[in-house]
Amino acid sequence: MAGVRRRGRDLERTLLDAAWEELTEYGYHRMTMAGVAERAGAAKSVLYRRWPDKSALVRTLVEARVPRLGDPPVTGDLRADVVSALEILRAAYRGLAVLADADPALCSRLRHEADVDAVARIVRALMAVGVNPEPIGSRILRVPIDLVVRDVLDGGESAPGEIVDEVFLPLVRLRTESRPEATAGGK
To answer: Which residues bind DNA (predicted)?
Structure first.
């Protein structure tokens, strides 16, 4: 088979795409380096030059494919910002589900990072609209995150907009209306 020889980023993207397809189709335990190579149209040696084994390939794959909240801009629309954070968190947890059996320690670390990022994003969103997150409390800040995570782990189709509208925003309103110090400057 005479094809175009791929190199560099193009080759790595092809290999990672093939690995993702194998992983999602067969799961970690049934995924093989030979299957990835065949799907990518590459020799196994090409894979082994980049990754010493299947677990290293999957770690690279998950770190490349699992969304991170990072530091996206806060728009000043509390609902939209929190929904956005929860949607990214939901996608991250779904991506991490394939890693649970493969590398539990890495999966745990990435889940923790996703949770911390989500809380930080919600705090920034609150502050952008003049709400002091301290009186709201860490438990209330975690409620929408925990609901999304629980739903993903149960295999459900969480709707972050509903969680924000029906649970999070009413709790925030309740806390900020009952405590004047919850708004910036005590207003």
So the answer is: 32-51
Share of the chain residues as helix, strand and coil, in percent rounded to the nearest 5: 75, 0, 25
- Measured CA to CA, the distance from residue 155 to residue 180 in angstroms comes to 40
- What tens digit of pLDDT does each residue of 119-164 get? 888 998 999 999 888 888 889 999 999 999 888 878 777 789 999 9
Residue with tokens 């782990």: 153
pTM: 0.68
* Burial category of 187 from C-beta neighbours within 10 Å (exposed 0-12, middle 13-18, buried 19 and up): exposed
What domains appear along the chain, each with residue ranges and CATH number? Answer: 8-65 (1.10.10.60), 78-186 (no CATH)
